[in-house]
Amino acid sequence: MSPPPLASAPIALPGCADAPVLRERGQREVFCGLTGIVWLHRKIQDAFFLVVGSRTCAHLLQSAAGVMIFAEPRFGTAIIEERDLAGMADCNEELDRVVDRLLERRPEIKLLFLVGSCPSEVIKLDLSRAAQRLSVKHAGTTKILNYSGSGIETTFAEGEDACLAALVPDLPATETANLLIVGALPDIVEDQFRRLFTELGIEAVDCLPARRAGEMPAMGPNTRYLLAQPFLGETARALEDRGATRIDALFPFGAEGTTAWLHAAATAFGIDELHFRRTVAAPRERAKRALEPLRERLYGKSVFFLPDSQLEVPLARFLATELGMIPVEVGTPYLHRRHLARELALLPSGTVISEGQDVDRQLDRVRAAKPDLTVCGLGLANPLEGEGLATKWAIELVFSPIHGFEQAGDLAELFARPLRRRDVLRL
């Protein structure tokens, strides 16, 4: 069956805005929040991430970030030994020595994050107080902050949320009206958005995080912010505590998602509607053209999202409204209904929405549904492939440039590729 032409606006669907949520509480299969360091240390160019944890955490980072082996990385691990865990040694003294040695060797570090890999009850160390003490000690050269990347307390993408939330209290204050794009985006995507906002006439645009520690944005009661990522709940709360106002919008995935995201900002800043349409017309049309051949392949195919990154709901909306895929179930580690209300309203009625994880029960539903594509973590992909189910690694959707008009075709291709591979293997 051939798909109908690509719609000029999100398809009107009964929606899942008020759909019941299946809450799962059981065994989880997700990376911990430490993984966010892998992209954050590339984004903030003069920051260093020092993980305070065990050798297991060191091995995780070494494996997950092994692609950085040819460049001197800006992350490391302060190992907590067994005697430290037992409270037999003064961890603060050892941490001070590690930090002093690190900053002496790497004076270019302007922002140092102490990242807890375990709750303070486990490592017997209050990293918040340690960061305050060390920040005073190294004042004038390096700012020292802390956040938790513990897999006990956070899921995969929430490490970025905790990191950005830690930055907010120290952002400079301003009364000037400005727009804040919140979420770590690849530089090329950030530059594209900045150009579009400039063309629209919104000049005071800042990004959190900035590319360098000394360029972090100012904010205040006249700041309006757009979330670029759906997993930034704590950061949003911290911004609002300082008086900023969230601009409610779809997330910028696909031609229509990006249009709606930009339009929400344009409306908030009083941009003329005709000027907005003229500004976005060309890049929007390029995005729609890029999606057409992939829509041919994906239309009518079913997709099942297992919970992983919190990107699941907006990505399911993109696949349903712009490519004609059928979401069977959309699972997410945490469902922020206020931030995702517009996304949920565009999901097809009857889509199962689940929050949290119970791996065995969810895998049973995958096997019963036999979707054309299952989006899941690395640990589940290989077993499902062995059972004959096509899978997409969810982690790739976090690492890849997928936001905005120019990346719309690349985003769709990430979902089309596993189906193409399956077809080739069947020949």
TrEMBL record:
Protein name, UniProt field: Light-independent protochlorophyllide reductase subunit N
Any one GO MF annotation of this record: metal ion binding
Domain Nitrogenase/oxidoreductase component residue range list: 32-417
Subunit description: Protochlorophyllide reductase is composed of three subunits; BchL, BchN and BchB. Forms a heterotetramer of two BchB and two BchN subunits.
Domain of life of the organism encoding this protein: Bacteria
Record-linked InterPro entries: LIPOR_BchN/ChlN (IPR050293), Nase/OxRdtase_comp1 (IPR000510), Protochl_reductN (IPR005970)
HAMAP family hit by this protein: ChlN_BchN (MF_00352)
Taxonomic placement: Bacteria, Pseudomonadati, Pseudomonadota, Alphaproteobacteria, Sphingomonadales
Alphabetized UniProt keyword annotations: 4Fe-4S, ATP-binding, Bacteriochlorophyll biosynthesis, Chlorophyll biosynthesis, Iron, Iron-sulfur, Metal-binding, Nucleotide-binding, Oxidoreductase, Photosynthesis
KW Lyase (keyword) present: no
GO biological process: light-independent bacteriochlorophyll biosynthetic process; photosynthesis, dark reaction
Pathway in which this enzyme or protein is active: Porphyrin-containing compound metabolism; bacteriochlorophyll biosynthesis (light-independent)
Positions contributing to [4Fe-4S] cluster binding: 32, 57, 118
Cited SUPFAM superfamilies: Helical backbone' metal receptor
Similarity remark: Belongs to the BchN/ChlN family.
Enzyme class: oxidoreductase
Co-factor binding comment: Binds 1 [4Fe-4S] cluster per heterodimer. The cluster is bound at the heterodimer interface by residues from both subunits.
Catalytic activity entry: chlorophyllide a + oxidized 2[4Fe-4S]-[ferredoxin] + 2 ADP + 2 phosphate = protochlorophyllide a + reduced 2[4Fe-4S]-[ferredoxin] + 2 ATP + 2 H2O
Cofactor(s) needed by this chain: [4Fe-4S] cluster
Function (record text): Component of the dark-operative protochlorophyllide reductase (DPOR) that uses Mg-ATP and reduced ferredoxin to reduce ring D of protochlorophyllide (Pchlide) to form chlorophyllide a (Chlide). This reaction is light-independent. The NB-protein (BchN-BchB) is the catalytic component of the complex.
Organism listed in the record: Sphingomonas spermidinifaciens
Listed EC numbers: 1.3.7.7
